[in-house]
Design brief:
The relative contact order is 0.25. It contains four helices and eleven strands; from the N terminus they run ααββββαβββββββα. With about 210 residues, it is an alpha+beta fold. The protein starts with a helix and ends with a helix. Strands 1, 2, 3, 4, 5, 6, 7 and 8 form an eight-stranded mixed sheet that branches. Strands 9-10-11 form a three-stranded antiparallel sheet.
Length: about 210
């Protein structure tokens, strides 16, 4: 069973190839770097991997985004998070967006962070953090942003039974897409890439 000590150790790994870990669940072809030809700078956002005690050990929460034609990620499964506002730090953004989206306002212990990820469709740099609470949270999602809450055991990330690879025609492009199957929902794209780094860090620690 995965314990918080394992999570802390996984996030503290220094000689770890984050990009290789991300690529395991990245659609192909898919760039992980912003093109130097793009003007200006990418926008900034943050997300939070929130861990808490579940029936089968540590669990985490994802959200299904509300359908919105103005959102390029409308309806997709994502981690709680969103865009930076004003002079917030990346961590402040992650915590604020978590409160706003899933309605959890308890104290969260921040265990560490994962590698920054670039998202081409929306031109965002995303900063992922990992936090934990020692009890089962009560979520009150904001229906304007969150259609549904998905909770699942952390151990599922390490179980190949919950991984699928398919060939998709997505917006006119042929892509090979790996995804996590969470209660018959496709967790893919940026969310899967972030979770893949987390998964591979845990694999590394648990195999030592």
């Amino acid at each position: 069973m995965i314990a918080l000590e394992n999570v802390r150790a996984a996030l503290a790994l220094t000689d770890f190839d984050s990009v290789a870990a991300q690529r395991r669940m990245a659609p192909q072809p898919r760039t992980l770097q912003r093109s130097s030809a793009l003007p200006g700078k990418p926008r900034q956002a943050s997300v939070l991997v929130l861990l808490y005690p579940g029936v089968s050990g540590l669990a985490l929460v994802l959200t299904q985004r509300t359908e919105n034609e103005r959102d390029v990620h409308s309806g997709q499964i994502s981690l709680p998070g969103g865009s930076r506002e004003n002079q917030e730090t990346p961590l402040e953004t992650a915590l604020r967006e978590t409160r706003e989206e899933i309605g959890f306002d308890g104290e969260i212990e921040i265990l560490g962070s994962l590698a920054k990820l670039y998202i081409p469709p929306s031109d965002f740099d995303v900063y992922p953090f990992v936090g934990a609470v020692p009890y089962l949270p009560v979520f009150q999602p904001d229906p304007r942003e969150v259609h549904a809450i998905l909770e699942f055991p952390l151990s599922w990330l390490l179980d190949d039974e919950h991984k699928v690879i398919e060939d998709w025609n997505y917006n006119g492009f042929q892509m090979r897409v790996p995804w996590y199957n969470v209660h018959d929902h496709r967790v893919w794209g940026a969310t899967a890439i972030i979770l893949s780094e987390f998964e591979q860090r845990l694999h590394t620690v648990l195999s030592l």
